[in-house]
Amino acid sequence: MGAEKVDARRLAALLGRWSAGRGPLYLLLSGRLRRLIEEGTLRAGTVLPPDRALAAALAVGRTTVVAAYEELRGEGRIERRQGSGTRVAQAVPLPPAADGGPENPMFLHLLEPQDGTIVLSCAAPEEPPPEVERAYTGLAFPGPVDLGYHPAGLARLREAVAARYTDQGLPTEPGQVLVTNGAQQALSLLVEHLVAPGDGVVVEAPTYAGALDVLRAAGASVLPVASGPEGLDVDRAERLMAEHRPALAYTVPRHQNPTGSVLPPAAARRLVRAAARYGTVLVDDGVAADLALDGSPAPPSLAAYGEAVEVGSLSKSVWGGLRVGWLRAREELVLRLARLKSMRDLGGDVASQLAAMRLLEDFDRVRLRRTGVLRERHDLLRAELGRLLPEWECPPVQGGQTLWVRLPRGDAASFAQVAIGHGVAVLPGPAIDASGGSGDRLRLPFSPAPERLTEGVRRLAEAWNAYTAPRGAPRPMSLGAVVV
């Protein structure tokens, strides 16, 4: 087998906010590359992009990349040979624990200090609503004293989640519900149990970043299907299922992340039937299903049309810091996943689950408060983009928390690097598109507070002016150190 290669676009995503700091750019770049090598993200022997390609992806001069590479070559971390390119040195010790870490810039921005950067790469409520504080007030465990270990979740919370599905027209028993530490853990458990290395998994392109990282860490063969204003291409999905018999199909059919689209009922019914025909476990990620901007109830889930695993949480509808999620599936699958989960954490935080029970008791009021806030911020973000960046295409969405913005020219990954230098982190389309497309797209959340949205767009406009300025023209100063 040939040496592993990392292309310029992927390496730019791995580098994250490398330029947000003090000192010469080549030292900031070499420092970030050094860290990726030392933690094992860039393994020994990995072929690095050519100077010019990486410079273009990072929107810097070629001399910056050359100087950074030379810095690492002098340390013995990389090797550069005429005709064979640049690669990570074989002698560099690599800790194996780094394998399977997040590659996506959304997670890298969360893991690293923000240093004054406005982070517009993560879509989740930044401030808990007042109902959260009230839900935690005066908590008392409802039942006999026990150890507090509930791998499948508190019985009363499972009952509350099951009742909610039943009220939505999807009859559900508590034994069909597994409570997890957020929807991310639900996805991780499903993939760990159902997907072996090399198994095919159908995903939308673009899709949720966290799902892609979980699938890549599992060694899955990702099969992308284009997703647009009407949801995913069901014809293409059905052809892939017939050809590859994938183990799993991961979808976000209601207020899709990042496009905000809703899959029409006829298409949803066809997708469910295709998955059943070819033995594919169909997953409906419904974390944003309740976030219709007009306040209407969630559209029907895929399980309303047949067999599907439903994933939900309170992180998008209430607050990202409330790590309570769940999945709904056949009881035998829930039992197997509960056993797997018990080996990971013995159960979730009891206090948070008790709070979640209280929030679900009055969930419609919480939901309407949240969708009202999102509607105002959706309109604000579009208005600010229209005022300061009128060339950008940013159509309205039906629900969710993100706009899927098209740039009139240039490359989204390269522009994202320029934006970092101007104090704002955004998620470029290629980072969440497994097909390699969406090169002209940005995902922009409208969940942040109004003042952060306004300032974020101002910085984006400044970055866009710098990115599109003719070569040699004076460029504005960076705002990287400003805290908002």
Helix and strand layout, with pairings?
Layout: H1 8-15, H2 25-38, E1 47-48, H3 51-58, H4 62-74, E2 78-81, E3 85-88, H5 105-111, E4 118-120, H6 130-136, H7 155-167, E5 177-180, H8 182-194, E6 200-205, H9 209-217, E7 221-228, E8 231-232, H10 234-244, E9 248-251, H11 265-277, E10 281-285, E11 309-313, E12 325-328, H12 331-344, H13 350-361, H14 363-388, E13 402-406, H15 412-421, E14 424-428, E15 441-445, H16 450-468
Parallel strand pairs: 4-14, 6-7, 6-9, 9-10, 10-11
Antiparallel strand pairs: 1-3, 2-3, 5-12, 7-8, 11-12, 13-15, 14-15
Helix pairs in contact: 1-3, 2-4, 3-4, 6-13, 7-13, 8-9, 10-11, 14-16, 15-16
Indicate the proportion of strand residues.
Answer: 5-15%
Largest beta sheet: what is the strand line-up?
5-12-11-10-9-6-7-8
Overall morphology: globular
Give the radius of gyration: 23 Å
Structural class: alpha/beta
- Find the count of extended strands (DSSP E, 2+ residues): 15
Q: What helical percentage do the residues reach?
A: 40-55%
Round the mean pLDDT to the nearest integer and report it.
87
Sheet with the most strands, sense and barrel status: 8 strands, mixed
Separation of the first and last Cα atoms? 49 Å
By DSSP (H or I, 4+ residues per run), the number of helices equals 16
Spans of at least 5 consecutive residues whose pLDDT stays below 50 are 92-103, 474-484
